[in-house]
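ok posting inputs for the adenosine-5'-triphosphate job
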Amino acid sequence: METNQTTLDPPETEPTEKPDPPKRGEPRKFRANSLGSFYSQLTKQGLARFVGQLPLIDKFEAELKDRSDREIRKYSLGLRHRAKSGEPLYKLLPEAFALVRIAGARTMNMRHYEVQLIGGMIMFDGAIAEMETGEGKTLTATLPTYLYALPGKGVHVATVNDYLAARDAELMMPVYKMLGMTVGVIESQMSSDDRRKAYSCDITYGTSKEFGFDFLRDRLLIRQTREQGLGVLGPLLAGKKEKNEEPVQREHFFALVDEADSVLIDDARTPLVISAIPGEAEKVAVACHQWAANAEREFEEDNHYEYDHDKKSVELTVTGRLLVRQVPKPKLLDTVGLVDLYDYIERAIKVKRDFHSGQHYVIRDGEIVIVDESTGRIAEGRKWSYGIHQAIEAKEGVEVTVATGQAARITVQDLFLRYRHLGGMTGTASSSKGEFKKIYKLNVIKCPTNRIPQRKLWSDRVFGNAEAKWSAIVEEIREINASGRPILVGTRTIEKSEELSKRLTEAGIEHEVLNAHQVALEAEIVSRAGQPGKVTVATNMAGRGTDIKLGEGVHDLGGLHVICTELHDSARIDRQLVGRCGRQGDPGSTRQFMALDDDCLLIGLGPKRYKKLVAFGENQSAELPAYAKLFRQAQRRIENKHFGDRKVLLYHEKQRKKMHREMGQDPYLDSPD
Ligand SMILES: Nc1ncnc2c1ncn2[C@@H]1O[C@H](COP(=O)(O)OP(=O)(O)OP(=O)(O)O)[C@@H](O)[C@H]1O
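and the output
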């Protein structure tokens, strides 16, 4: 087996003498040098004030730590009073952080590490704390969240999905409760009343999507009230207004964004949209989608249409357009112009080619539900725009939820820029530093790890084709599984998880598959993924936010081994998957597998080069380590392209808002289209 420069030892050459890493939960061995250099680096960045706060926090902690729970709570109420009276929050920071630290230690036996205090200060200061995966961001979040909650204006903790929002709120509840703070969670299937209650809490956990949709719904409600000539406060004062006709949110004071790269960057390519109520025209639209979904089968590539692999776009040829005219149509379509019919057909063809059940979406209770490609999770409530969603519905024969006009829309960027204070955290931010700064005006500051990381990167393995790659993966799983070490395998799509699962079953390897179909079982399955002899296959969903604890004896066997079966479009997502092992100073190892027919080469290098590579790889039986670089290059290209897409969206949004303002309209509610 060959190694390349970026990697370390494969199993055979693993050093026999292992360092003696500290066990999870053991006190950190203070790394004076690395922390010292981190502190001097902070000082150089003009952030010496963070370091200066540490002794103050220690001092207050020492003073307060022997007080009773009641006294701590009382002290916290005192802080709240001082904040409400206008004392600047940065002055309260040492006391607030000391209280949170005491509450963490007392209620959960987790006393915030020094690096976590620094992380908390970074976020308080309006920046993104980049903390390695597994460094305890959930606990760190309690520090700035508590501090900003003191003035009573509400704090929103945003994350990527309902599951993580509810889980984190529940996990951290004891800390907040002890300090007299109320905590609410917003979930997608909640009534307005429950939402209002959750938002009236001091701290509200939820997804960025829910925060955004609630903002839009409130905005629509306020306008409706105004249009009825009541004024916003009038009915409230007059006591006429029903509770559920009041906005659910309060002001946008502080938002803390967990998994900041995923929320602020990956999810920022599509705006959040609330559709208007359907009318007559929409019936025709439904008929068009259904007609196109059927007629599409008669159209052949290169004869009736051309497909651009780079842009993933379909264009009818002259012959194709002729065919559109000839295909029989229902009466309802008589009023529809030919140009529109071309669009419907092109969209239906595109959907057939590019959107696949099990990969991009699943059908649940007669509905098309998007699967977030980067996480493998169900993207609850999201819809593709430009009629794509409806075209998929028509293709799958489920009810077509007509593409109505937009009643309200907001981009993720706009949503978070509305908050007076914004902070974030993630394990993977550096590579998007420029984008965070440019779009959100957020600096990214890297925190050192609490303990020396023990994760080993084994050499990449590159194969000529998928078949060879899958066989090697199964072989590696078999070898490592025999030693009793647990293994987590990450795949790019649900389909591929299932394909690997089939192969493992054939090879007689016991395993568990975790994918978007089983969200409810997820936590339970993941919690077992670190147990001896366990093999867990998952899409990238396991790559985010899930903590995998090592079972009995696994530490001594070398910890969890993570196998990445294919490069993702974004290196950050790969790093998240890798980050499931080697957490909190645990040992662990990881290996990346690649094949010349992987999707990332097609998307990153284009169909011409891809075809050549596939042809070359077809008959290769040997491994091709020299090609690893090419995959990373393709990945960088995809990342750049996505960054470009987001910049374009932002530019158009900016123009749109400017136009609305000039016309005296509401940029979130009035849609020109
Ligand atoms: N101060 C602490 N003392 C003891 N244990 C801690 C402390 N901070 C975090 N942990 C433990 O570390 C583990 C990882 O925490 P967590 O899942 O919050 O990490 P994370 O940084 O969010 O990881 P990821 O980036 O993968 O989401 C958890 O088991 C948590 O209980």
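notes: Residues 25, 110-113, 116, 131, 133-139, 427, 545, 547, 579, 583-584 surround adenosine-5'-triphosphate (CB under 6 Å). Confidence is low (pLDDT under 50) at residues 1-33, 234-240.
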